[in-house]
Amino acid sequence: MISIKCPYCQVGLKVDEGKLPLGITSFKCPKCKQAIPVSLVTSKEKDEEAETQLLHPIKKSAGRLTVVANPDAEEQVFLLQEGVFIIGRQSSASKADLAIKTNDRSMSREHLRLEVKKEERGGYKHYLSDNNSKNHTLYNNKYLEDGEIVVLQDNDEIIIGHTILRFNL
User: In whole numbers, what is the pLDDT of the chain averaged over residues?
Assistant: First the structure.
């Protein structure tokens, strides 16, 4: 964990650098929503001019799922970890582990099932399936069949209701 300060609203943040994806150049401040620049510094020397420094190399994450901004929802990013997750529309009746804040009523409250498994060589595999949703799931422009499980690849597109999700490693 490292401590940083948002250069815009001055809020203090604790960031687990192991959960940041490789190649990240910024992330949104949870308070003011401004992009905070990130610089990876592998030496112990501190550069006084850098706005933000990560002093340790970033570990490879298990990927991320991004909700593409649309009229019903703003962009949302979910950093993934090992385990089984139900993905769907956020509501008081939803049991989704990854609850999407949206007004898209064609998205089920428990629309998708995602299983993230660690491989022996240290990477991760991401298994996606429809969770018996009413409006089904489009995966790279093809509907998932009942019981079909796909292995996600970098930059895959998933459409649930009218909402587009982008998967990245």
Answer: 83
